[in-house]
Amino acid sequence: MRHLLSAADLDHQSAVRLLDRAAQLSVVSDRAVKKLPTLRGRTIANLFFEDSTRTRLSFEAAAKRLSADVITFTAKGSSVSKGESLKDTALTLEAMGAEVIVVRHGASGAAYRLAHSDWISASVVNAGDGTHEHPTQALLDAYTIRAHLRDGLGDLTDLRIVIVGDVLHSRVARSNVLLLSTLGATVTLVAPPTLVPVGVSSWPCAVTYDFDEALADADAVMMLRVQAERMSAAYFPSVHEYSRSYGLTDRRARLLSEHAIVLHPGPMNRGMEISADVADSPRSVVVDQVANGVSVRMAVLYEVFGARAEISPEGISHV
Amino acid sequence: MTSPARVFDADDIGRVISRIAHEIIERSRGAQNLMIVGIHSRGVPLAQRIAERITVIQGAPCPVGELDVSMYRDDVALRGARPVNATHIPAHGVDGQVVVLVDDVLFSGRTVRAALDALNDIGRPASVQLAVLIDRGHRELPIRADYVGKNLPTSLTETVQVRVLEIDGVDDVLVERKASA
Amino acid sequence: MSSSHIVIRNVRPLDAAPIDIEICDGRIRTLNTADAASGTTHNDAEVLDGEGCILLPGLVDLHTHLREPGREDAETIATGCDAAALGGFTAVHAMANTAPVADTAGVVEQVWRLGQATGRCDVFPVGAVTVGLQGERLAELESMASCAAHVRVFSDDGVCVSDAVLMRRALEYVKVFGGVIAQHAQEPRLTEGAQMNEGALSAELGLPGWPSVAEEAIIARDVLLAEHVDSRLHVCHLSTRGSVEIVRWAKQRGINVTAEVTPHHLILTEDLARSYDPIYKVNPPLRTADDVQAVREGLADGTIDIVATDHAPHPHEAKDCEWSAGAFGMLGLQTALGIVVETMMNHPGASSSRLDWQGIADRMSVIPARIGGVQAEHGRPIAVGEPANLVVVDPQRPWTVDPARLASLSRNTPYTGMTMPVSVRATMLRGHFTVVDGHLS
Predict the structure, then answer these.
(1) Chain A, nearest residue to C326 by Cα
(2) What is the pLDDT along chain C (441 residues), one digit of tens a residue?
(3) Catalytic (active site) residue C310
(4) Is residue C379 part of a domain?
């Protein structure tokens, strides 16, 4: 795994292997010594052109638990606001010794472009690009679902997972549809037609406008964040109407089967896409998602660094 | 390439396991705080066999664990990501225990170095010893084994392959000259 | 420097038998079959051996961005004319979206004069329809039409004249001097933030979509407006199957509409966006393979009248970035003929979707000259007494596109490494070579 740009980069075997490795690494979080020497002396750059404190902190924690040095670059108060380009910033970070660049960017494809242009030779991990993908979020969601519904083993075969909300603008939804279906789950998207992308029929999932119907046999429900500015862009008439049709209300939560869990990538709009009671109920695994994010990102960073061995000239194996 | 030479067969391995078990008991003088810990991959079944043997000899169970050292290796950059294995340490932990690490082949010493670091992050054993089936020389670190099944002088152009029933379906040790050095 | 007395030997005008053609004082003086002329000598004439080559009327581009004034770092009128001449063009229409915008007689006259000064290619300025391309009030169309530049084509290209009333007024107003409104058909509200063709691929790539309907809706509205006010409409860079069908319907109905397609919409598809490399970012966006098939058919059957390059130079940094930060547009002048031959002549499809040399000459010279109102000088028949605006095409000499070797100041060609099936051997403007043996003269 030279780069992680899309959940589509992962086949079934490599996805399960990543989850397994993350599970191994999660044990470290329970020890007194929460650090592994694996990437000692190696440098990871966090390149965040968009404000995303939780994702950035999660990657930072992951890198530090592997003893890597972390250079963090955030758009706020940096030269990005003065018009420094993605290319120049990446060149700068590579010049500082970064071998892996974790990038969050508002432009779809920014991570792909960084990886496939001839600008840099560093490996690239996509930490969210525009409305395209957020593969580590999908990995931590899959990890969380597997931990709760599969005892942390194997894949997600036959699990029914419902993803609800602004699919059109959601990188989380795109990555999850790809990864969860790779892992054998049956995915159903629920959204108003205005928030479903044209061409969704080619995705490996079902689409419905009827949330109640989708809830009945769901094993996991993933609520997407809905941004209030979508309302002013006329994607839906009012917060109230959206919430009534597509929010996970207390009434809907009662339709769920006993074992079903509720996920949310955060930050939550309580009272809009999810009611406060549901968000705080035992079904909600939102806090687990955050914790699992660190383990999953440790596994990803380890894999990406490991793959660099295959391309480095001194990477000749000896027994 | 020459065909591999079999330097140990199943009987040889059985005898060596038994001898090492006796040596461990003798050296620990029947200590109650003994723990055998296998290093992934082939150290794990060897450790289990040694522990079973000790259990039989002593008439009291000998705790056994397994240790994955891949995250402690210093060669991620050279050799890439390694497969995932579990680390299992008996519930009472390694603090104050006499831990005998078990591996199949002692070569550069880097695996053992990684295992010592891994152990160090888990707890603080009273002492750590090392048992290996084959010591093939060519150390790159100041590390030696306390219990050795067989010293096998080799050249760097040779590979030593330990096969165990639990993983490979057969118990033996093969030495093979590499196609090119 | 080329002489004013030139003989091109053994060249085949369109698909006809080889001839010797004598050019003197900017016009074609004689045409002789090669056999009959073999004994003739022209002692003082410069001779070009056109053995194996095709002679076409000089190509005419109705849609070129020369960037001057304002963005001389991307292209100048001089470098753009070099690229045009090397591509076989003897006339280009320079779009109005410069800085300042070509919306006054002063600006269009400046562009016209700078073009005259190059001596490589005639530059006919396109005037803006609205002041500053703002879509709010009409520019002084009459002033631009009656000034030295004699503007006949008006366009806000880059921006759609989306206001229906304004579009109606523009169509009406240009009737006074026989002008035409060239519409960049893009419904603005349907394409806010749009980055690529809308469909399954844009959904997968997470790029905001530019739906076909945003183009088709404007074309449909505009052909009906043109019919209602009995004026002329030209549709710029049509790119979808639906657009072809609407124009076909309009023509059957007798509406005075013409349409163009770009070379890139004849050959490239949206799949190139998978690279997220904005070298493939263009407006209108690359569409599907089905749309490509439809525009080829439309061009072959005459629904689409012409090929126009939409040559759009951009400096390197405008393309060496992430997709959404990249500028829209591609170079086109030097590769246009090659792409048209490749897609309309060499491909193995049905003959009904193919063009011969006459068909290519019509769509790249004769008809664009007529739409642009420059048919007195350009797109003329190859006949005695006609102005010698000509191009000699070598169909046996393919070449490979290297952006660094194009004449344009910019390098944003999507065809890097691609082989063009034919090359321009020579281009002649009013009896003088502008290009000889593939080099500027």
Answers:
(1) A107
(2) 445 799 999 999 998 999 999 999 999 999 988 655 555 566 688 999 999 999 999 999 999 999 999 999 999 999 999 999 999 999 999 999 999 999 999 999 999 999 999 999 999 999 999 999 999 999 999 999 999 999 999 999 999 999 999 999 999 999 999 999 999 999 999 999 999 999 999 999 999 999 999 999 999 999 999 999 999 999 999 999 999 999 999 999 999 999 999 999 999 999 999 999 999 999 999 999 999 999 999 999 999 999 999 999 999 999 999 999 999 999 999 999 999 999 999 877 777 789 999 999 999 999 999 999 999 999 999 999 999 999 999 999 999 999 999 999 999 999 999 999 999 999 999 999 999 999 998
(3) yes
(4) no
- Does C275 contact A87 at a Cβ distance shorter than 8 Å? no
Instruction: Strand B5-8: give its sheet, edge to edge.
Output: B5-8, B172-177, B158-163
At residue A77, what are phi and psi to the nearest 5 degrees?
70, 10
- Is residue A91 less than 8 Å (CB to CB) from chain C? no
Q: Which two tokens stand for residue C195?
A: 């980055």
Q: What is the CATH number of the domain that holds C135?
A: 3.20.20.140
Query: Is C193 domain-assigned?
Result: yes
Q: Determine the length of chain A.
A: 319
Q: Which residues contact C99 (CB under 8 A, 6 or more apart)?
A: C69, C70, C71
Distance CA(C106)–CA(B128), nearest Å, equals: 91
Residues of chain B contacting residue A20, judged by C-beta atoms under 8 Å apart? 84
- Name chain A's partners: 3 or more CB pairs within 8 A: B, C
Regarding whether C168 and C128 lie in a shared domain, the answer is: yes
Distance (Å) of CA C90 to CA C59, C81, C93, C112, C115 = 6, 9, 11, 14, 11
Last residue of a domain, one of C345, C372, C399: C372
Q: Which domain holds residue C97?
A: 60-372
Task: Give Cα B28 distance to the centre of its chain.
Answer: 18
Asked if the C-beta of C323 comes within 8 angstroms of chain A's C-beta atoms, the answer is yes
Given C20, C222, C310, C362, the catalytic residue = C310
Judged by CB atoms closer than 8 Å, whether chains meet at B79 and A307 is answered as: no
Domain boundaries, given as residue ranges, for chain B = 9-76+86-153
Ordered domains of chain A (ranges, CATH): 7-134+293-311 (3.40.50.1370), 135-289 (3.40.50.1370)
Residues C360 and C402 in one domain: no
Tell me if C298 is assigned to some domain. yes
Please indicate whether, in this complex, the C-beta atoms of A24 and B87 are within 8 angstroms of each other. Answer: yes
Nearest CA of chain B to the CA of A24: how many Å?
Answer: 6
For residues C214 and C147, state if they share a domain: yes
C-chain residues near A129 (CB < 8 A): 206
Q: What is the ipTM of this complex?
A: 0.91
Per CB-CB distance under 8 Å, the chain C contacts of A131 are 206-208
CATH classification (class only), B9-76+86-153: alpha beta
